[in-house]
Amino acid sequence: MLLQENFAEEHIRELQRTSRRDPVLLERAVYAFGLLEALAKVGMPFIFKGGTCLMLLMEHPRRLSTDIDIIAEPGTDLDKYLDRASEIFPFKAVEEQKWIGKNNIEKRHFKFTYDSPINNRPFYILLDVLFEHNHYSELVQKEIQNDLLLTEPEYLTVSLPSANCILADKLTAFAPHTTGIPLNCGKDMEVMKQFYDVSSLLEIFTDFQQIGPTYGKIAQAEIAYRRIESNSKDCLWDTFEAALCIASRGKVSKEEYPIYVKGIRELRSHIYAENYTPEIAAGRAAKIMYMVACLLSDTEYLRVNDYAKFLDMKIEQEKLASLRYMRKVNPAAYAYVIKTDRLLAELQG
């Protein structure tokens, strides 16, 4: 369980000292897990999803996330659980936020208020609840503990999608012209959060066969919510083109690249594990393109261990010509470009 010391200024300042990150973001990330544990304590049935769940899935948190996103079965009586959760330390109250969505999605939004030790005033953690049946083919149980938290046995657990399934979910979210967060609508950082999470999950997923079926279910649900004229393959190609723009550093889709760069710069303060740059993003975009090509061609995603053997290979697809520069500046990424290149040839053949 979480120790009360998590919610004291001393702990937040110590995290600030070791990470050199914004203490307000650190505070909100820690308090978000306080809310998660409160929901678990009152026995509320839910699936934990979204960016914050990656902070449990991954061995070490990489991106600070400050909201709690959950899925509840349609018809779940939330109020009896949330009122009790709002009485658990460090929270003071809960208030529902009435938002009118632009699509056919049943959601509720709540603010859980607490006294901020950093700002010395009331602040809140957002809880977003999506009412739908479970689309994930694989759920796992995770204890509420990570590098940010002070804990002691016994640990409470929550149910969340496996890395394989949340990767599929995040791929649908990084598709800015179809099922994902749209470009150029004031959410540039949110777009790049999805990109960052996809690239992080590519490092830890374990079963390629779980990704495609889950992706198909979630993509179809998102298409239906948005009432758009697309199919799951269109959404995958959307992700591919967005990743190609980032990988090419604007040589492809030149007008969109500054939006991605703006999102990267805004995201930097939220990255716990590294100093994130457009150059780093470009290299990781190659892996995303390869995953998309694997899903489109139903070809197993194979991680590259020996990058050197790809250096003598040439890019054959004109679509990827703008990525030739990676051969010199990022041989690891170039290997994934070559693998993508060969799969594109098969798809076109």
What do these coordinates show?
With 349 residues, this protein is of the alpha+beta class. The protein has 2 domains: 4-161, JHP933, nucleotidyltransferase-like core domain (Nuclear Transport Factor 2, Chain: A), CATH 3.10.450.620; 165-348. The protein has 12 helices and 7 strands. Strand 4 (107-116) and strand 5 form a beta hairpin. Helix 1 packs across helix 2 (23-41), helix 2 (23-41) packs across helix 4 (78-85) and helix 5 runs parallel beside helix 7 (208-226). The longest helix has 20 residues, at 278-297. It is globular and about 60 Å long. The N and C termini lie far apart (56 Å). The mean pLDDT is 96.
Structure, briefly:
This protein is an alpha+beta fold and 349 residues long.
Number of domains: 2
Strand order, largest beta sheet: 1-2-5-4-3
The percentage of residues in β strands lies in 5-15%
Structural class: alpha+beta
In DSSP terms (H or I, runs of 4 or more residues), the helix count works out at: 12
Radius of gyration: 21 Å
Number of strands: 7
What are the segments in which pLDDT stays under 50 over at least 5 consecutive residues? none
| Outline | globular
Percent in helix: 40-55%
Give the mean pLDDT.
96
Q: Provide the succession of SSEs.
A: HHEHEHEEEEEHHHHHHHH
Short key terms for the protein model shown above:
12 helices, 349 residues, 7 strands, five-stranded mixed β-sheet, globular, 2 domains, alpha+beta
Topology, element by element:
Elements: H1 9-19, H2 23-41, E1 47-49, H3 54-57, E2 68-72, H4 78-85, E3 91-97, E4 107-116, E5 121-131, E6 139-143, E7 157-161, H5 163-173, H6 188-201, H7 208-226, H8 232-247, H9 257-267, H10 278-297, H11 326-329, H12 331-348
Parallel strand pairs: 2-5
Antiparallel strand pairs: 1-2, 3-4, 4-5, 6-7
Helix pairs in contact: 1-2, 2-4, 5-6, 5-7, 6-9, 6-10, 8-10, 10-12
